Amino acid sequence: MPHDDHDTIDGDVYVSPRHLARSTAVSDPGLDPLRDLGWDLHHDHLGNAYLTAPDGKARLGYLPEGDDDGLWRINAYKDAFGPPAWGVCFNDSAPTEFVTAFTTALAEAYRQGPDRYLARPLAGSTDRDPFQVVDPLINRGWRFDRPHLRTFAITAPDGLATLEYTTGDLDPAIELDTRDARWHLWAGTSSARPYWYATASTDTPAALLRAVTEAVADPAPLPRWRDDTSSYVKDYAQTSPIHPPSPPTPTPLDVRRAAASRRPAALPAASVPRWSTTSRHALPGQRR
Q: Which spans does this entry mark as compositional bias, Pro residues (predicted)?
């Protein structure tokens, strides 16, 4: 069970497995890693938010008023005025924690420069092999499948989440604008009607995608509000209440203090000296 301080947990239940959580509808966690780097933030007249890297070669759109259900669209460019080198999309139901895992990894790659955030996957490479993306899932018992001639898939043990990889040549424009991308991660029983989905184009760096699959594979549950049933898959997800933390175990000093507070007065009431006019100190208002 997570060790978060109860006061900071945004929810009253834990949801597991975490791929059966959905969006929290709070954008700040996904935006903050890039805003902290000084990326420029602006909004359009509809309320969509846009973040642009200082060099103009990486951009994020948070699009609640977009033309489709692609809520998060992140692109990187070799030339700030050219077409995207790669693109990633998370739809409006994707767990916010998975988006945050991606933007956190992107922030770190951006700090290291274009050789990191524009690093194309390269089979056999130590740090760029596409196999790195599926490795966290394999380690958690996800199973390989071959649903189509050109598609490899790896599916969660409960059968309710799948990562698909399409082989062969793909049209870059189609990858960026549709779900027909190189990588397709989704939850549900059918990719046609997923609980949520994310896509990534061919040249998306493997290290960035691995950050997402590590977040998906993490066995720790995610916090959600029980009554907000749109934030998790109610019919399949397991929920458990988030209880306030137990009071700390008393120390020996605490025990002694508690015992002392329960002791009777040292003198019986009849023995307590009374004030009188002959006392050295008079009561307030009395003469000496």
A: 242-251
